[in-house]
Specification:
InterPro entries: Ion_trans_dom, K_chnl_volt-dep_EAG/ELK/ERG, K_chnl_volt-dep_ERG, KCNH_animal-type. The chain is built from 15 helices and 2 strands. The protein is an all-alpha fold.
Length: 358
């Protein structure tokens, strides 16, 4: 009873412990060490504290932003002449410069916080010694976090050459390494069918977004070297009436037209074999299209093949609940249990399914 009142308030209100459990990206089961008062050093952060739970969600949102905007910026914006002028102007002209700087600073702060955050050893003991925490972090995620936090924009700032711009775009994709750590933390939601379904859809859309950025980068890199303008970008320019002009760097389709068309091509190639209105013409585009089709077939096997199992598992839980309630009602009717106790029995099994069974 003390444990239940500690976790879920006996007065019906939300306790701080319950709030942290909802926010926490760690284990869902309440371990024994959380019920004890650990001895920690000054400036040391408990890994299950409310501050750490909120901070982990903040870093998760920044990683999602990085996973979406870093490939998009590296492929579309860094090579755009107008966007390049805005970025070279400084932080006052380009909001993306400010956001990228904030993301770099937050990732660096996260590394410092991880050096002062406790962890649980193999004996289920909370380790709060700074030296042991540092060694544990160095052996774990430090290298990935460090590479993802390097501000490549500031390190190579001032050089406006096209080679440097391409190098910055490639180096900034190192931030995507943090997705490995996020994937490990999201494992706790694998038991919830609806959450897994939503997560699979988001993963599919994110992979299509990455492939769209690569598809555009291939067409944009090889377009100036084509003797016959047969690339997909030139075909798009002809369809929209926005032809490329060698003397005008800003000519051709807009960034919006190019991104939407690239995303349409990757989605149609991943879910089917495409419709042909956006087609690969050069050898590089055809090789990439073959790779996209292979990735699409693999995603069908690994992602969409699990959808039917997930939906079946969702309905199986409801069917199990109704079967259990039917047995309870038959038990009540057979033993002629009076009304107050009968109502309490039914409410208990409802609570056990919706609160504990899930």
């Amino acid at each position: 009873g003390t444990l239940l009142c500690h976790t879920f308030s006996c007065t019906g209100t939300i306790t701080p412990v319950k709030f942290v459990r909802v926010l926490s990206l760690g284990a869902d089961v309440l371990p024994e060490y959380k019920l004890q008062t650990p001895r920690i050093n000054k400036f040391t952060i408990l890994h299950y504290s409310p501050f750490k739970a909120v901070w982990d969600w903040l870093i998760l949102l920044l990683v999602i932003y990085t996973a979406i905007f870093t490939p998009y910026s590296a492929a579309f914006l860094l090579n755009d002449s107008e966007e390049r002028k805005r970025r070279e102007c400084g932080y006052s002209c380009s909001p993306l410069n400010v956001v990228d700087l904030i993301v770099d600073i937050m990732f660096i702060i996260d590394i410092l916080i991880n050096f002062r955050t406790t962890y649980v050893n193999q004996n289920e003991e909370v380790v709060s010694d700074p030296a042991k925490i540092a060694i544990h972090y160095f052996k774990g995620w430090f290298l990935i976090d460090m590479v993802a936090a390097i501000p490549f924009d500031l390190l190579i700032f001032g050089s406006g050459s096209e080679e440097t711009t391409t190098l910055i775009g490639l180096l900034k994709t190192a931030r995507l390494l943090r997705l490995v750590r996020v994937a490990r933390k999201l494992d706790r939601y694998s038991e919830y069918g609806a959450a897994v379904l939503m997560l699979l859809m988001c993963i599919f859309a994110l992979i299509a977004h990455w492939l769209a950025c690569i598809w555009y980068a291939i067409g944009n890199v090889e377009r100036p070297y084509l003797a016959h303008k047969i690339g997909w970008l030139d075909s798009l320019g002809e369809q929209l009436g926005k032809h490329y002009n060698k003397s005008d760097a800003s000519s051709g389709p807009s960034i919006k037209d190019k991104y939407v068309t690239a995303l349409y091509f990757t989605f149609s190639s991943l879910t089917s074999v495409g419709f042909g209105n956006v087609s690969p013409n050069t050898n590089s585009e055809k090789i990439f299209s073959i790779c996209v089709m292979l990735i699409g077939s693999l995603m069908y096997a690994s992602i969409f093949g699990n959808v039917s199992a997930i939906i079946q598992r969702l309905y199986s839980g409801t069917a199990r609940y109704h079967m259990q309630m039917l047995r309870v009602k038959e038990f009540i009717r057979f033993h002629q249990i009076p009304n107050p106790l009968r109502q309490r029995l039914e409410e208990y099994f409802q609570h056990a399914h919706y609160k504990l069974g899930i």
